[in-house]
Amino acid sequence: MRSLKLSVKDLLSAGKPGEEVSIKGWVRTKRGNKQINFVALNDGSTINNIQIVIDVPNFNDDTIQKITTGAALHVKGKLVESKGQQNIELVAEEVEVMGECNPETYPIQPKKHSLEFLRENAHLRFRTNLFGAIFRVRNAMSFAIHKYFNENDFNYLHTPLITASDAEGAGEMFRVTTLDMKNPPLTEEGKIDYSEDFFGKSTNLTVSGQLEGELGAMALGKIYTFGPTFRAENSNTTRHLAEFWMVEPEMAFYDINDNMDLAEDFIKYTIKYALENCMDDLKFLSQRLTDEEKNKKADEKSMELIEKLNFVLNEDFARITYTEAYDILRNCKPNKKKKFKYLVNEWGVDFQSEHERYLVEKHFKKPVIITDYPKEIKSFYMKLNDDNKTVAAMDVLFPGIGEIIGGSQREESLEKLLGRMEEIGVPKEEMDWYLDTRRYGSATHSGFGLGFERLILFITGMGNIRDVIPFPRTPKNALY
Ligand code: 4AD
Ligand code: MG
Q1: Correct CATH for 127-172+207-467 of 3.30.930.10, 3.40.50.1820, 3.40.50.1980, 3.40.50.300
Q2: Which of 116, 174, 369, 446 would you label with 152, given CA atoms 20 to 30 Å apart?
Q3: Atom of ligand 1 nearest to the CA of 250
Q4: Per-residue pLDDT tens for 247-275?
Q5: Residue list, ligand 1 pocket, CB within 6 Å
Q6: How many helices and strands (H and E) does the chain possess?
């Protein structure tokens, strides 16, 4: 007999007819009659189930009754060849029901549930084929990210989650405090006295690890962060979370072009990794998407999932400046016919997701990198271009997603950086540590941030960001 810890994945890939095995898992479905039962057993190791064949008269009634969807089973028996979906099935000799699952009250029935229903039961949705596939892909993508950076000599740097600075300067931060909210200490001017707070100053959850990441890059050369990020923006969209995971590489001696090359190579590597390692789950996800869209008109349907992943892998991303993008958008049909919610008619406007998606899905029909944005709509740390109007920013836009990466070459001149901070009103005193990178051995450097959940949306073909993170945090929702 082989080890007790065999997984269903092991059995399906390497089990041989005639072998005696022992396996544990949960019942997905049971069908059959008074003589014979077929149980589809799944343990989460793969989207595929192992079929358990139960010769009913050999088992007591009580056991058979308790084999219901969701119940945890321990089955011992012999592998035999199968004519079903898998090559192999297990003829049960012993069945122990480890945990019963009352079919009257169990919310996850062996039928299709809506994504909304599963979101409301997010603690149980892991048990569906769909969420099993999504979270295995998410796991594989985390691993691929670490693998990529490790293979390319990046150092994984842990930047703080609690910080006193607002990296993006957008003021969308969650405060961290231990002060008594009913009775906070006050300064003479009647303001809250944060010098009495836990850290002796006002602190918040980080919106980005970039600024600390730059400190690392200016010594270790190439670093990346990969951790949770928090934004208190009240955007109830299918693309925003209040707590999301961001990957932020930062590289000394990289200019904006090196930065774009890295972003494109990195993202393609993760997609290739998914195609090479997650095919069973991707096939399932592809079928889901096809079913989901079967009632859509031909021109509204998205490309088949696996074809789409291969397509992105094989295309060079388009690279254009903000000004070029602006010209395309200003002159495009939906803008002229006022089909856009926000019209593009003044250089300097920030692009909305409808514009980004037009560029990617309709105009270029492939991923697009936009560079050189007007300085007014980007962060203080981005390198000012010689025109004094634009900065060396880059956004990578993806089909169906919009912005998946945001990054830039950083302003390396102390003088110019101070000028920008002054203009925008970023407090200098608080940021002295950051300015030291420009005071001592300053050099060209660049980096970007990839929204991890947006990458998972793209790879799984899911449409709502709440469905690709195990426990979504969004406005008015922090269950679990
Ligand atoms: O464009 P952002 O705000 O860039 C930064 O934070 C830089 N400090 C990154 C850097 O240069 N190191 O965010 C980066 C990416 C976005 O492109 C998007 O994919 C994702 O993070 N993102 C979000 N994902 C989910 N929910 C949100 N609320 C997000 N906000 C940004
Ligand atoms: Mg951005």
Answers
A1: 3.30.930.10
A2: 369
A3: 12
A4: 999 999 999 999 999 999 999 999 999 99
A5: 167-168, 208, 210, 231, 233, 240-241, 244, 246, 248, 403-408, 447-449, 451, 453-454
A6: 14, 16
